[in-house]
Amino acid sequence: MKINFAETPEYRKLKSTMKKIKNLSIQGATNVAIFGVRAFANHAKTVPLKEKELFNHLEAVVDQLSRVRVTEPALRNGLRYVMTGIQIDGNESAVDHGNRYIDLINDAKLKIFKTGAERIQDGSRVFTHCHSSITVGIFLEAAKQGKDFEVISTETRPLFQGRKTAKRLINNNIRVTHIVDSAMRWAMNIFNPHMIFLGADAITVEGVALNKIGSRLCALAAEEEHIPMYICTSLLKYDQATSIGRLSEIEMRAPFEIWDEDVPPGIRILNPAFETIDRYNISAYITEAGLIPPQTVHMTFQQIYGKKIKYYHHIDM
Ligand code: RUB
Known about the structure:
Bound molecules: ribulose-1,5-diphosphate
Radius of gyration: 20 Å
Strand content: 5-15%
Number of domains: 2
Order of helices and strands: HHHHHEHEHEHEEEHEEEEHH
CATH architecture of the largest domain: 3-Layer(aba) Sandwich
CATH class of the largest domain: Alpha Beta
Largest sheet: 7 strands, mixed
């Protein structure tokens, strides 16, 4: 019997979620993980296959979904979490396991918002780059606590996610100054922010963070101006593969996002989505485990999530 998954609403939803993740209608590591895991779990529950065939199909889907945006370990960790659950309890349990992973993310977020907001005082000036739901959540929490502070945010070319940040902040009565990316160093020099808050897409075993292109420039400018840099992130973005020697991959996006019409032939256009921030430039990670130094990321991840989120290659070793 040939099974046509394309006909099931859950499979169609999974495909459309993949498209939205690719074109950034679903944007930022946390949302990518939540929407990706939910769509995968809903589909997994309805797959009418058994044993080897079931796992072959689900592994292929995990692989496909993980490749939509390669710099997103929180999604990969979530897919592994659901797959481990399915191995133990069968695929009818997929949605429960998916929900449990999403609960882990949401619990982590609340803790990070509270801890991050502690750092913000009346009169604080905070610099940020791109749009991170975690960083914005911290700002909203600080505003809810009645703190009077301001944010300097970049526009974030080529897709302008920084506008999303600026809109969320101003709609919540948080003062915001918006600048072009290349004015980062200038703005740090002129406004002398008290701290930099950035999100993260991935964290490596060395404590290096990967975040939107421009983040390393931001870190270097912060170093020059002696401004502390905090990475606001759940440890669920820890890329476990880096602990067995793999390198975290950096997504290369399409050239048309930079220049889409009348491009003179022969010009090479490169559009890297992310870059690394050296651990020496990170004052601390603001995480669900509180503020932690970059060197302790692997250990802290293992303490909190080690038993829940297995990395298959560790099991094989
Ligand atoms: C978004 C980006 C965000 C991180 C963290 O990049 O770099 O800082 O994903 O986001 P893109 P969050 O726009 O290419 O997805 O804090 O929401 O997890």
